[in-house]
Design a protein that fits this description.
Structural class: mainly alpha
Largest sheet: 3 strands, mixed
CATH superfamily: P1 Nuclease
Helix content: 40-55%
Strand content: 5-15%
Number of strands: 5
Order of helices and strands: HHHHEHHHEEEHHHEH
CATH topology: P1 Nuclease
Radius of gyration: 18 Å
Shape: globular
CATH class: Mainly Alpha
Number of domains: 1
Distance between the termini: 49 Å
Strand order of the largest sheet: 4-3-5
């Protein structure tokens, strides 16, 4: 059962109940918001190619496929793909400097930086079968979202906050789950209404990263890691109070907006007329 809190300072007892069995990046709500924000920013050429690739799934919305890479863990028919990709949803930085060192932080390509790079390359290759490119699109949409959830880019030895126990709404939970869904749930909005709210805040400033390819994806992960390190993500006393929600929810929402822009950039480059591999 869900309950919500108004950010004006109602008691924490009105905060969202965290009963989900497994923490996943942003949860379906956050991933759908990122996907929708990105779709609003696609070029006409990229939008048309997205529509064409999505058609076999009987959808026109990126939001409908945004959580698929998490959902396959419960599908026996996708067990092999889940085992192949499950460690590509996150990155564990080796130190608090939040600097990406591939041989230390992404051995064997098993991190979100390398996972995103791989699936962008597949998506961009128009010689590949559409079914393979559609699967790549699903991973690209999801992994960009993952990279912008700060606890998917951690530096502490606590499994991205999954092992960091907290009290939230008078119940035991963990910090990762709070950032996946708890903070966003306090708005008590569906994904479409939430995306409308964030889109109405207007465009973001100038692009924050000028690098391309894997260097760009690494820079996004490093920026998320610095949020975990510098912006009070870990609560004092392991208690999520109303003041924490008020001050950290805007950080989470800004990450959603940035992820939407970054995803649109990747898709416009990969699927636009001048993008992709012919």
């Amino acid at each position: 059962m869900r309950r919500s809190i108004h950010l004006s300072g109602l008691a924490l007892g009105a905060v969202l109940s965290l009963a989900a069995p497994l923490a996943m990046a942003w949860g379906p709500l956050g991933h759908s918001i990122v996907a929708d924000l990105a779709q609003r920013q696609l070029s006409p050429e990229a939008s048309a190619e997205v529509q064409r690739l999505l058609a076999p799934d009987h959808t026109r919305q990126l939001a409908d496929i945004a959580s698929w890479p998490d959902m396959i863990q419960d599908d026996p028919g996708q067990a092999g793909l889940w085992q192949q990709t499950r460690r590509q949803h996150y990155i564990n930085f080796g130190s608090a400097d939040c600097r990406y060192v591939p041989e230390r932080d992404c051995r064997g390509g098993q991190c979100v930086v390398a996972g995103l790079q791989h699936y962008v390359e597949v998506l961009s290759d128009r010689k590949l079968p559409d079914a393979q490119r559609l699967q790549a699109l699903k991973f690209v949409v999801h992994f960009v979202g993952d990279e912008h959830q700060p606890l998917h880019d951690g530096y502490r030895d606590d499994k991205g906050g999954n092992a960091y126990q907290v009290q939230f709404d008078g119940r035991g939970s963990n910090l990762h789950r709070v950032w996946d869904s708890g903070l966003l749930g306090t708005r008590h909005l569906g994904w479409q209404a939430y995306a409308d709210k964030l889109a109405a805040e207007g465009p973001l400033g100038a692009p924050d990263v000028n690098a391309a390819g894997v260097e760009r994806y690494a820079a996004w992960a490093e920026a998320s890691c610095r949020i975990t390190r510098d912006q009070g993500v870990y609560p004092a006393g392991h208690v999520i109070e109303a003041s924490y929600v008020t001050s950290r929810l805007p950080i989470a929402e800004q990450q959603l907006r940035i992820a939407g822009r970054h995803l649109a950039e990747v898709l416009n480059e990969s699927l636009g007329t001048a993008g992709g591999k012919p």
